[in-house]
Amino acid sequence: MTRLDWAALMRAGMCQLGLAPDAFWRLTPAELSLMLGLADVQRPMGRSGLDALLAAFPDETESEGEDD
């Protein structure tokens, strides 16, 4: 686990972003990172990603689809 540099985060949140202390402390580290432009924001899954998941994890197996 990495330690957070709270002093630097407080300076960035309160000085750079202009957050009030109570607003700063209500944020999660992920939210603060996003506001500071530090977060690696992922795009929503596209069709190719969904197709890959469907192929890897089908809703039913071949044996479930057979009539007994």
Write the layout of secondary structure elements.
Blueprint: H1 6-16, H2 21-26, H3 29-35, H4 47-56, H5 62-65
Structural features:
68 residues, single chain, mainly alpha, 0% strand
Your description of this structure?
With 68 residues, the protein is an all-alpha fold. The protein has five helices and no strands.
Q: From the helix content, strand content and strand pairing, which structural class follows? A: mainly alpha
- Using DSSP, what is the number of strands? 0
Question: Rough shape?
Answer: rod-shaped
Report strand %.
under 5%
- Biggest beta sheet summary: none
Total helical segments: 5
Secondary-structure element order, as H and E?
HHHHH
Alpha-carbon distance between the two ends? 52 Å
User: Helicity, in percent?
Assistant: 55-70%
Q: Whole-number radius of gyration?
A: 22 Å
* Whole-number mean pLDDT: 85
Which regions have little confidence, pLDDT < 50, spanning 5+ residues?
none
